[in-house]
Amino acid sequence: MASTKTVKVEQIGSPMRREHTQRETLIGLGLNKIGRQRELPDTPATRGMIRKVRHIVRVVDGK
């Protein structure tokens, strides 16, 4: 089986005083508190979500 590429994302900022859509994007990524990390599939949709909230999240590790 071919292994799928993943990207590890960590939330480093608060969604307080940000647009409502950015909060929804964080929830869509599976993040809701500072310091939480999530390993997600490396797809164009995921990359677009990360790009939208790039000031609140950090890509920790890409495999």
Structure, described:
α1 crosses α2. 30% of the residues lie in helices and 27% in strands. It has one domain (6-62): Ribosomal Protein L30, Chain: A, CATH 3.30.1390.20. With 63 residues, it is of the alpha+beta class. The protein has helices spanning 20-29, 44-52, and strands at 6-11, 37-41, 57-62. A 3-stranded antiparallel sheet has the order 2-1-3, with no helix packed on it.
Could you name the CATH class? Alpha Beta
* Major β-sheet annotation: 3 strands, antiparallel
Number of helices: 2
What is the CATH topology classification name?
Ribosomal Protein L30, Chain: A
CATH architecture: 2-Layer Sandwich
Helix content: 25-40%
> Using DSSP, what is the number of strands?
3
Give a nutshell description of this structure.
With 63 residues, the chain is α+β, with helices and mostly antiparallel strands. It has 2 helices and 3 strands. The radius of gyration is 12 Å and the shape is globular.
What's the helix and strand layout?
Layout: E1 6-11, H1 20-29, E2 37-41, H2 44-52, E3 57-62
Antiparallel strand pairs: 1-2, 1-3
Give descriptors for this structure:
63 residues, alpha+beta, Ribosomal Protein L30, Chain: A, 3 strands, 30% helix, 27% strand
